[in-house]
Design goal:
Order of helices and strands: HHHHHHEEHHEE
Strand order of the largest sheet: 1-3
Structural class: mainly alpha
Strand content: 5-15%
Radius of gyration: 29 Å
Number of helices: 8
Length: about 190
């Protein structure tokens, strides 16, 4: 049996067609991999109302209104480092609506805001930019044999302790390296 028992209109009409053709509810349950209560309720609804439409208002009502959802999105964008718990407190202070941190996360996901680790970027000075640009201009005409002698490495951060960068920010996909979305890092070497 499937866990998801909400049926689309096409499936509902197929079930009703099978019922009217004289097929038993048990046969329909086996054929469509549904529980007996789903088929029985659909059969009763069709006999009583002649319709297969879901009644309006079925399901749990939303804890927040559209205005509160927009408010949550705005305060999350203004304070990108705020946790879902802090945002739920801010929502309560601003509107008087109490919601859980899970609800806050769901509302932010609906507006394409996700909690992600900030990308660690080295802040570049104007001197660093000029040096990098000069290096690129010097090496732009290199061929594959010359590049084959260059070793490209990726500096990784290793730690025996727990992660000390456990801070998340709310951001949209594809905005990881935008300056407000990234954490600054200082390195102890030349050639930045």
């Amino acid at each position: 049996m499937s866990n998801h028992q909400r049926l689309d209109d096409g499936m509902r009409w197929r079930i009703v067609g099978r019922l009217e053709a004289g097929q038993s509810q048990l046969q329909i349950c086996r054929e469509f991999n549904l529980t007996a209560s789903v088929v029985c309720n659909l059969c009763k609804q069709f006999q009583d109302t002649g319709s297969i439409e879901r009644k309006p208002g079925q399901g749990r009502p939303r804890a927040t209104t559209a205005t509160e959802d927009r408010y949550l999105s705005i305060i999350a964008r203004r304070n990108m480092g705020a946790t879902a718990f802090q945002l739920s407190r801010d929502l309560y202070a601003g509107t008087g609506t109490r919601v859980s941190r899970v609800t806050v996360s769901k509302r932010l996901h609906e507006t394409r805001l996700f909690a992600r680790r900030p990308a660690v970027c080295v802040p570049l000075t104007s001197i660093n930019r000029r040096v990098r640009l000069a290096w690129c201009r010097e090496h732009r005409d290199w061929n594959m044999d010359q590049w084959a002698t260059v070793l490209f490495t990726d500096e990784s951060r290793f730690s025996l302790n727990t992660d000390s960068r456990r801070k998340f920010i709310c951001r949209e996909p594809g905005t990881a390296t935008y300056p407000p979305m990234s954490a600054k890092s200082t390195i102890m070497a030349e050639g930045v």
